[in-house]
Amino acid sequence: MSVEFIGMIATRKASEIHPAEGPIIDRDYVRRFAEAHEQAGFDRILVAHHSTGPDAFLVVSYAATVTDRLGFMLAHRPGFVEPTLAARKLATLDQFTGGRLAVHIISGGDDAEQRRDGDFLGHDERYARTDEYVDILRRIWTSDRQFDHNGAYYRFQGGFSEVKPVQRPHIPIYFGGASAPAIDVAGRHADIYALWGETHEQVREQVARVRASAARHGRQIRFSVSFRPILADTEEAAWARAADILERTRALRTAQGAGPGDPKQSEGARRLLDAAAQGDRVDKRLWTAIARETGARSNSTALVGTPEQVADALLDYWDLGVTTFLIRGFDPLEDAIDYGRALIPHTRELVERRLAQRPAKAG
């Protein structure tokens, strides 16, 4: 795949500039959101996990019924479902979606968030558990016979699944986490390693670290970077829109009584704040003000400009080895539609041109 675009859906309208209103699950909104991504040319959509939110398995199941081609990236936290059962659930969902499923493994970077669901392991131990968990997932998906397991976190006898994924050898595994333990686990298990929207230098350094980790296990990994593109017909209008988004973010946080953003245990959040410390505008068009304002608790950096300018900025990251872009807007549904008009097709065109410029391989 030369370039992949992933969007993100939620079960109701909400963002840094839109307070969550109405029922937590708005079926019509989910349907329109999923359909909009399919029509805009996205390859997949992320369905996130949160300790107080709807079940991502069921959200994906519903969204799959209202789309035909769109893939899904289901965020999943090890530790709350036994890996043998999780493997069967994921394989079953892959079967019912016709091979459209991927899983995004997130070990957790916030003790308070984990404890809401009864997980009291520390940060590094969560990644040790993830290592064992994902190894079991892959064995259950690929094994043609029962096997026993006696590990540090899981023990079972005769583990096996009659249902296998449509995709072979197994469902694609996306993986997030920027700490040293996370990179070690990523090297063993990730098919695609996901970063938030960092600077060119940060991405270059992180790609090198993860590639080195994978090489120690004889593996190769693809890379994903997440951005919040802010588009307009002119560059001046795009930056004016960015300024308005910042003011609306501040106003909403004040109205909600939100304190200063705190990255807590998330190394990814700290890396975004390091980028923000270099200034609000870094590299060509990376805008860090929302990350600084919110404590970078999610993918909160933007690329700002016209669709052509932002596509050119994405190409810079593609040149660094990134083949997947997770993009979502501050106006979630409306921006997804807008990305499909010019940003996605123009980026694909730029990548194809770059590929055509590469010399043919000998032999």
UniProtKB/TrEMBL annotation:
DNA-binding among keywords: no
The Luciferase-like domain, residue ranges: 4-323
Biological processes per GO annotation: alkanesulfonate catabolic process
SUPFAM superfamilies on file: Bacterial luciferase-like
Sample GO molecular function, one term: alkanesulfonate monooxygenase activity
Keyword Chloroplast: no
Pfam families referenced in this protein's UniProt entry, alphabetically: Bac_luciferase
Keywords: Flavoprotein, FMN, Monooxygenase, Oxidoreductase
Name used for this protein in its record: Alkanesulfonate monooxygenase
Native source species: Aliidongia dinghuensis
